[in-house]
Amino acid sequence: MPAQHLVPAFAEALQLSPRAQANALRALALDAEEAKEKDWNGKAAAALLLGARWAGERCDEGELARQARVPEATVAKQLEAMAQRLSNVAP
Question: Closest Cα to residue 50, out of 66, 64, 32, 38?
Answer without folding.
Answer: 64
